[in-house]
Amino acid sequence: MGGMPAPSTATLQAALATVNDPEIRKPITELGMVEAVDVSDTGHVRVTVLLTVPGCPMKDTITRDVTRAVGAVEGVTGVDVQLGVMSDEQRSGLRQQLRGGAPEKEIPFARPDSLTTVYAVASGKGGVGKSSVTVNLAAALAQEGLRVGVVDADIYGFSVPRMLGVTQPPTQVDDMILPPVAEPGGVPVKVISIGMFVPGNQPVVWRGPMLHRAMQQFLADVYWGDLDVLLLDLPPGTGDIAITVAQLLPSSELIVVTTPQQAAAEVAERAGAIALQTHQRLVGVIENMSWLELPDGSRQEIFGSGGGQAVADSLSRSIGADVPLLGQVPLDVTLREGGDQGRPVVVGSPDSPAATALRGIARQLARRGRGLAGRKLAITPTLSR
Ligand SMILES: Nc1ncnc2c1ncn2[C@@H]1O[C@H](COP(=O)(O)OP(=O)(O)O)[C@@H](O)[C@H]1O
Ligand SMILES: [Mg+2]
C-alpha cells in the first residue's frame, strides 16, 4: 500500500491534549482520562477514554470531541472511541490532583466504628413527600431523645431548611462549617443544605465531580458532633447523588418514599433497586398521601391504593430479603401547613393523622437502635463510579 505512514502516538497524544473535559475544563490527558491509544497499520485509531462517573452526561460530548481531534491528525483513517469508567483509585487520584494535593478530610460517618445510623431517603420522582417525611422523621427522632442531623442533598430542589424553619446560615470556623440548629418542638436538629451555599434562589448546575465534592464537604467539613441518626434527603431518582452517597457512606441505608399510585410505585421501585448495585441495606418503604380522612371518618383514596405495599413486595423479591412497608401517611392539611411554616407536623399538630403515622415510623427506626449490633459490615459498592 502506498498510503501515508500511520500517525505516531506522540502526535495522537498531542491531539488528545486539545480535548478538555467539559465539566472540569482541563485536558483529558492531564486528568488521566485517556487510558489507551492504539493505532492500526492502516491508520485506524482506537482511543479508550475513562469517564469520571458511569453514565456521565457528558459522554457524547467527549466522544465527539475526541473523534474530531484525532480524526484531524494526518494519516488517521478512522477513529473509534471506547468509553470506560475510572476505578475508585483513579478517581480519588483525580480528586487529589484537583485539590492540589491537599488531603481529603475524613467523613466521620464512614469510619467502620461509627455509631451513627445513616438513612438516605429516596424516591422515584419528586413531589411524593420525601422532604416532608425526612424533616418529620428528624423531628420525631429528636423528640425520642436521639441526636439527629439532616443533610439536604436534593441539590436541585432543596427545601429542608424552610421545612424546619431554619433561616440562619451556617457558621464557618477556620475550615470547619458549623451547621445551623433547628429546634422543632424545642429539641435540636442539625441541618445543612446546599441551599445555604447558593445566594438567593439561584439554580444549582453542578454535576458529576462537583456534586461529589459538595457531598464530601457536607459530610466531612461540617462539624456534626456525635449523632445517633443522620438523615439524607436525596434528590428524586437514581442520579449522581444517590451513587455518590453510596460511595461516601457505604453503610448508609435506604428508605424509599412513594405514593399509592401504581405509576409512582414503579419509579420508586427503580430508586430502591439501586441498593442492589450499591449493596446498601433497604430499611423499608413509606407510603405517603395514602388517603384523605373525611369528616365522617371514611377514607378517600385520592391517589389510588397499594403502591407502598407493591414497592415493598417487589423490592423484597428482587433483593431476596424482607423490605417492610414501614407505614402509610395520610394526606393531611396540617402536614402541608407545617412544612410551609417551618414547624413539622409531628410537633405542630402531634395528634393529626399524619403526625401519628410519622411518629409510628420514627419509633420503628428508633427501635432499630444505635450501634454496630446487627449492622452489616460496610462493603465497598461494586458499582464503579
Ligand atoms: N401527607 C401529605 N399531606 C398533605 N400534603 C403533603 C403530604 N406530603 C407532602 N405534602 C405536600 O406536598 C408537597 C410536596 O412534598 P415534598 O415533601 O416537598 O415532596 P418531595 O420532597 O418528594 O418533592 C409539599 O407542598 C408538601 O407540603
Ligand atoms: Mg424534596
From TrEMBL:
SUPFAM superfamilies per UniProt: Fe-S cluster assembly (FSCA) domain-like, P-loop containing nucleoside triphosphate hydrolases
Sample GO molecular function, one term: ATP binding
Keyword Transmembrane helix among record annotations: no
InterPro entries per UniProt: FSCA_dom_sf (IPR034904), MIP18-like (IPR002744), Mrp-like_CS (IPR000808), Mrp/NBP35_ATP-bd (IPR019591), NUBPL-like (IPR044304), P-loop_NTPase (IPR027417), YlxH/NBP35 (IPR033756)
Binding site for ATP: G124, K125, G126, G127, V128, G129, K130, S131
KW ATP-binding (keyword) present: yes
Listed Gene3D superfamilies: Fe-S cluster assembly (FSCA), P-loop containing nucleotide triphosphate hydrolases
GO BP terms, alphabetized: iron-sulfur cluster assembly
Short name of one Pfam family: FeS_assembly_P
Keyword entries, A-Z: ATP-binding, Hydrolase, Iron, Iron-sulfur, Metal-binding, Nucleotide-binding
Ranges for domain MIP18 family-like: 11-81
Coiled-coil ranges (or none): none
Transmembrane segments: none
Biological role stated in the UniProt entry: Binds and transfers iron-sulfur (Fe-S) clusters to target apoproteins. Can hydrolyze ATP.
Subunit structure: Homodimer.
Family as reported in the entry's similarity comment: Belongs to the Mrp/NBP35 ATP-binding proteins family.
Protein name: Iron-sulfur cluster carrier protein
Species for this entry: Ornithinimicrobium tianjinense
Lineage: Bacteria, Bacillati, Actinomycetota, Actinomycetes, Micrococcales
